[in-house]
Amino acid sequence: MNRSQVWGTRFLSMALALLVVAGLASPVFAQQQGPVSASVKWSTLEQATKASKTSKKGVFVMVYADWCGYCHKMDATTFRDPNVIARIHAGFVPAKLNGESSTSMTLGKRTLTENQWAQEQGVQGFPALVVLDHKSRVIVQYPGFLSAPQARQFLGDLAEYIRLGGIDKLGNFLDWAEARS
Predict the structure, then answer these.
(1) What pLDDT, on the 0 to 100 scale, is given for residue 35?
(2) Which residues contact 121 (CB under 8 A, 6 or more apart)?
(3) Quick one: how far is CA 90 from the chain centroid?
(4) Peptide bond connecting 127 to the previous residue in cis, omega within 30 degrees of 0
């Protein structure tokens, strides 16, 4: 073997060794970055309303727009808070809906776009939260950003309202909440 062949073999051996080490190190790197924090497990509104009827849970709808900074901020903060996640999943089937989308969906016997549904709910800006009971009646439409502490309070009030009988026994959620204050 001549000198250049020896160096070529050594170079290939070193390159192969580096690739192996890099491949073995990548899982370690991933672990050092920490686990991905939990978040709300969103479904489509169509899926959520079907699941709501069988589970007898309400539907918690996050209405967003792709360009909306506060929507992204809620995803990154509010909807990663363990207490918020637990409260949403305990009492609701969570759904996410793009309020500007022309994507069609079927709700009961109606077919409409996500944008049409958002307009029917009175959504005028993003983010907006629309909460439905298990019969698909609107409990409340909340416009704007909620921090995690605000969302915990909001979800706690909703849980209490539903526990006490909801629309059928208490009427309008906002009137009920205001009377409690």
Answers:
(1) 55
(2) 63, 128, 130, 138, 141
(3) 14
(4) yes
pLDDT tier at 37 (50, 70, 90 boundaries)?
low
Contact 108, 138 (CB under 8 A): no
The continuous run of DSSP H or E covering 114 comes out as helix 114-120
CA terminus-to-terminus distance, the chain:
90
**Residue the block writes with tokens 């416009």:** 143
Residues in Cβ contact with 51 at an 8 Å cutoff, skipping those fewer than 6 apart: 43, 57, 93
Beta bridge partners of 150: none
Q: What is the pLDDT of residues 56-104, one digit of tens each?
A: 999 999 999 999 999 999 999 999 999 999 999 999 999 999 999 999 9
User: How are beta strands 128-132 and 110-113 bridged, if at all?
Assistant: unpaired
**pLDDT at residue 180, rounded to an integer:** 85
Q: What is the pTM of this model?
A: 0.79
* Torsion angle defined by CA atoms of residues 51, 52, 56 and 57, in that order, rounded to the nearest 10 degrees: 120
Q: 147: helix, coil or strand?
A: coil
Q: Residue with structure tokens 């539907």?
A: 59
- Is residue 27's pLDDT more than 90? no
**Helix (H/G/I), strand (E/B), else coil: 64:** strand
The token pair at 96 is 């996410």
Kindly report the CA angle at 126 between 121 and 129, in degrees rounded to 5?
A: 50
